[in-house]
Amino acid sequence: MGPNLQTPELYQPAALPSKTYSLDLMTGRVRGTVDGLEAIKQFIVKTLLTSRYAYLIYPDEYGTERDEIIGSSSNALMEAEIERVVTEALIFDERILAVRDFVYEQRDDQLTALFAVDTVAGTISEVEMSV
């Protein structure tokens, strides 16, 4: 056996800060900044509202494929696809630990999913997405 050489770790990547601009999605205006759990909530909402692959400014992992779910033949298929699409859209962010507890509600032609998101800053319950 040769010598056991340990190389020092010179660089350890640090987690990116979550502080970001606060977006008022109702008015389309930026109002100050948010950090921590509020920044993660904003990321979740913005990700769920953004179509994946539609905007060159975002990486391929960003956004949802919710347009592919619309018009599915059955609610069971739509529920399975919503869970997959939402989980894939959110879990790539290192601040998201789990997406869980999906509950579905049918209102007329709209299927709404309520779910919880476990994050490094705490749990966000009752996140909503409709298709």
Short key terms for the protein model shown above:
2 helices; three-stranded antiparallel sheet; 32% strand; Nuclear Transport Factor 2, Chain: A; alpha+beta; 131 residues
What overall geometry do the principal axes of the alpha carbons give?
Answer: globular
* Strand content bin: 25-35%
**How would a crystallographer describe the biggest sheet?**
3 strands, antiparallel
Strand order, sheet with most strands: 3-4-5
The first-level CATH class name = Alpha Beta
Q: What is the tally of helical segments?
A: 2
| Secondary-structure element pattern, one letter each | EEHHEEE
Structural class: alpha+beta
Secondary structure: elements and pairs:
Blueprint: E1 20-24, E2 29-34, H1 36-49, H2 75-91, E3 96-107, E4 110-119, E5 122-130
Antiparallel strand pairs: 1-2, 3-4, 4-5
Description:
The structure is a single chain. The chain is an alpha+beta fold and 131 residues long. It has one domain (20-130): Nuclear Transport Factor 2, Chain: A. Helices cover 24% and strands 32% of the residues. It contains 2 helices and 5 strands, in the order ββααβββ. The chain has helices at 36-49, 75-91, and strands at residues 20-24, 29-34, 96-107, 110-119, 122-130. The chain has a 3-stranded antiparallel sheet with strand order 3-4-5, with helices on one face. The protein has a two-stranded antiparallel sheet with strand order 1-2. A hairpin with a 4-residue loop joins β1 (20-24) and β2 (29-34). The mean pLDDT is 83.
